């Protein structure tokens, strides 16, 4: 279950990274590097924080192969996607939801405190996207104006809460993923966002 | 002592990160993400280098809560700070001094060589600020023209030297922090900096 | 052998980082920070992935001293280098080839899977340069249009293949380094690169 969800999230993030690489007019390898980094970056960050050496996403070939395959597919097929850009944002939301819950669950399995598990889940969900945006020299999406980190924290929180309440295993993963993804999608489609800094007659 | 100093440095760095987030017109979450990342980023980097899993700054809630509280305070109160920007630079200098010495002391407690302890102290002091500047897509302050890394290296060196000479425990921390912070403040107020590359009739 | 190659790669990368720092008009410390980070960044990334704490490049002073010495040399002597910029690109190619093979060999010595060893070799070869480009706020060279990651992957693959086929120890390192460096140099001098994304009447 954890492994399958992990691959789904990897594929979604890799496709989002490769799409941005195509938009930036990178060549074949550049597109694949951004796609693979985005796909496996969150998992590598999680494993570094938890002390899993070498990181699972490098040590098991399916993660890399899935990330590479989806990057290549985007490279070849992107002209057909044109108006499918929204599909990528939805896949990205799915990947975020998946990684928030699998990250938190993995942290709990490594005996992290519940507090650390929530933060590590959120970092796993966010890490790949931040690496992507830093690589292509953009200010990370995470910092822009729609809910991104809030759903990630909520998904991780649900996994930890279900574990503390001893809800049988896969329900926390399912509930956390669904709720985090749905909240992010709702924020995207309805333009929800958080308030800006207050302004009281300020210049600059 | 180490823990208290760590929280002081976290608060100072978080406030500096949140201020830059406000200046970049990020929303509530963006400001908090930059603030928290800046506040706990140096400590996470230190723990990754020393193999402390999961990193202390994630595993203990006070660090996160302090970083979040100071980010929120800056978000809400920044219009009152206007001319207090220099206060932030001074707090940043204090955070740098604190993290240089606590980073070096933590490295020594983990049996790092004295050589590695100096470098890890400096990386701890510098790491949060570099993460902050990379997140908001600016060239790191560290690379700009005033003394930044020199005081950090000096503070870490003092901790290591006091340890080698068997000076009783907290004096190295106190002396290193005070001297590193004072040197950075002096550099800021007096415009000290290091020489630029020599130019002998060079174009470009 | 591994240690000597490591120092050669460190020196080459440090010189390339310092040259970019000079080009960006940083001061003495900025140039040294970029140079040292580029020189030892790949090795630190490798050791973080493999769980070597503290990282070898921080724990052994020769790496740091070599990186610092070559950064200082570039800072002082760059006006004499003017037309020697191509020398830097060739040194960078050498550093990439060296780190790809030593990274893969180190990963194998730490019982990484052959699959992980190839990826870790490539990440070691690429890591320092990516850190350099992120620090100076440029889109990483890795993503630009000439073969960069392909030679790194090939060099690491050769080390792993020779190990699997039980070829006596240093031959894999030598063959991998020579072939990776030669391929990168050929790509640079002949303008080889990989195809761009297909375009079928696409706007934007």
Describe the structure.
Chains A, B, C: The chain crosses the membrane at residues 61-80, 87-108, 114-135, 147-165. Chains A, B, C: Pfam families: Gly_transporter. Chains A, B, C: Keywords: Cell membrane, Membrane, Transmembrane, Transmembrane helix. Three copies of one chain form a homotrimer. Chain A is mainly alpha-helical and 204 residues long. Chain A has one domain (2-190). Helix content of chain A is 76%, strand content 0%. Chain A has helices at residues 2-23, 28-50, 56-59, 61-81, 85-109, 114-135, 149-164, 169-190. In chain A, helix 2 (28-50) packs antiparallel against helix 6 (114-135) and helix 5 packs antiparallel against helix 6 (114-135). The longest helix of chain A is centred in the middle third of the chain and has 25 residues, at 85-109. The first copy, chain A, starts with a helix and ends in a 14-residue tail after the last helix. Chains in contact: A-B, A-C, B-C. The interface between A and B is medium-sized, with 37 and 33 residues.
